[in-house]
Amino acid sequence: MTATDRFRPSVTVAAVIAREDHYLLVEEETPEGLRLNNPAGHLEQGESPIEAVVREALEETARAFQPEAFLGVYLARFVRPARLEDVTYVRLAFSGAVGEEIAGRSLDQGIRRTLWLSLAEIRACPDRHRSPLVLRCIEDHAAGRRLPLDSVNSDASLGCPRRLG
Question: Which parts of the sequence belong to the Nudix hydrolase domain (predicted)?
């Protein structure tokens, strides 16, 4: 197997945010049309998963996110009809709280709006979900799944990589 043949899943982070029996979701533009998603995005080189989820939640909701627990690692695979692209996502999901929307802060490009939906409302529209992981992460949160944040470890080499050899 060559380096170009190696399996390279897309690593993402997601924030599951609940308040008064409602969950904060984003409505975003995708190649398949408008979809609902947890505030989520790609892990960037040099950042820890916790740093990434705090950044993504802020960018997509204009709210400061405070992670409180790790929900788990989730995988999903699908073919994007618009591009015939076979994609596997590895999602690291965190639960936590947000403050109020920061006045004057715009939402990330492609995010149309944020909305608070009940679990019943989320369950009622699976065809609008960006992926099956949206509901799965919320269901796990609603069931009480919580792992300590220190379950996710990030070595200091993320900020200053070691030279091998």
Answer: 8-139
